[in-house]
Design goal:
Layout: H1 6-18, H2 21-28, H3 32-46, E1 51-54, E2 57-60, H4 62-90, E3 94-100, H5 104-119, E4 123-129, H6 132-141, E5 146-150, E6 162-176, E7 197-200, H7 205-216, E8 222-226, H8 230-238, E9 244-247, E10 258-260, E11 268-276, H9 283-301
Parallel strand pairs: 3-4, 3-5, 7-8
Antiparallel strand pairs: 1-2, 5-11, 6-9, 6-10, 6-11
Pfam families: HTH_1, LysR_substrate
Domain HTH lysR-type: 4-61
Protein name: LysR family transcriptional regulator
């Protein structure tokens, strides 16, 4: 019978996620040579080749993918065991490390933390702001226990590592300068703004969301300025430098920007929470998810 070493299997799993030995070593706080040595030892223990050369890099063999497919249920069961032991030892008490993209922190995470102080004061939440895609990498690496991200960044419905919980559909409004001629026009559509300069990031999920929404309306947006932070985007819109699609969660009442709800083809971004499969049975994580769902319902009703 082959000898299964969970620590080495975690290294192999991380290599699948990170893509390179160097990135795997950084994620696991190891040296690249140590990663390579551990994987060489694992291959010898299992009696199969796990890696093959691919240019200057290595990639997983079919045997390695087969090994990981059969060990995912083991990792899930270990998460359940950790959750059960935590519940036995600490009851409702526990720390939950949450990784969340920037607009989710004030809109969802902070209200959830405030609520937990009253409903479950023994649950401690530690927040780490991160980009939507990075949240999954942190979750897979064990650096956070719960990730808030966008459905567009979900690794895939068939990914066996995570359990996903839909939170809300965050509507996108058009941000216009206060003196824009269409600021009060009835029945505003994206097509009405096809000739405007648009403000969004040069790349990444928000750029993709803006482009997809405009292309669905029949035009390709002309990028006037590039920015990734909502403070900068709203400041440029307020100054008359262009228009932008802004998620409802990112709206800032302190600016003079006019936010218009679209009447047709209204785009939304779907916000989801994710935990490692098996971990959702931990009481502290369950309570945190419940608080996030309640915060999401309040945002939806606003």
């Amino acid at each position: 019978m082959s000898e299964w070493d969970l620590r080495k299997l975690r290294i192999l799993r991380t290599l699948r996620e990170r893509g390179t030995v160097t990135a795997t070593a950084a994620a696991l706080h190891m040296t690249p040579s140590a990663v390579s040595q551990q994987l060489t030892n694992l291959a010898a223990q299992l009696g199969v080749d796990l890696l093959e050369a691919h240019g200057r890099r290595v990639r997983l063999t079919d045997a390695a993918r087969l090994v990981l497919a059969h060990t995912e249920p083991v990792f899930e069961q270990l998460e359940r065991a950790d959750a059960a032991l935590a519940a036995y030892a600490h009851g409702d008490a526990g720390e939950v490390r949450v990784g969340a993209f920037p607009t989710a922190v004030p809109a969802l995470v902070v209200p959830a933390v405030r609520a937990l102080r009253y409903t479950h004061p023994r649950v401690t939440v530690r927040v780490r702001e991160t980009e939507a895609a990075e949240a999954y990498r942190l979750l897979a690496a064990g650096d956070v226990d719960l990730a808030l991200s966008l459905a567009a960044e979900v690794p895939g419905a068939a990914d066996p590592r995570f359990t996903h919980v839909p939170l809300l559909a965050d509507p996108l409004d058009v941000a216009l300068p206060p003196d824009h001629p269409l600021a009060s026009a009835p029945g505003l559509t994206l097509t009405d703004l096809a000739a405007e300069p648009w403000i969004h990031g040069g790349s990444g999920p928000w750029s993709d969301i803006t482009r997809r929404a405009c292309e669905a309306a029949g035009f390709t947006p002309r990028q006037g300025h590039s920015a990734s932070g909502w403070t900068a985007i709203l400041a440029m819109v307020e100054a008359g430098m262009g228009v932008a699609l802004v998620p409802r969660m990112a709206a800032d009442p302190r600016t003079a920007v006019i936010l218009r709800e679209l009447t047709t083809n209204r785009p939304v971004r779907h916000v989801v929470a994710a935990v490692r499969r098996g971990a959702s049975s931990a009481r502290a994580i369950t309570h945190t998810l419940d608080a996030l769902k309640a915060a999401a319902r309040r945002v939806t009703r606003a």
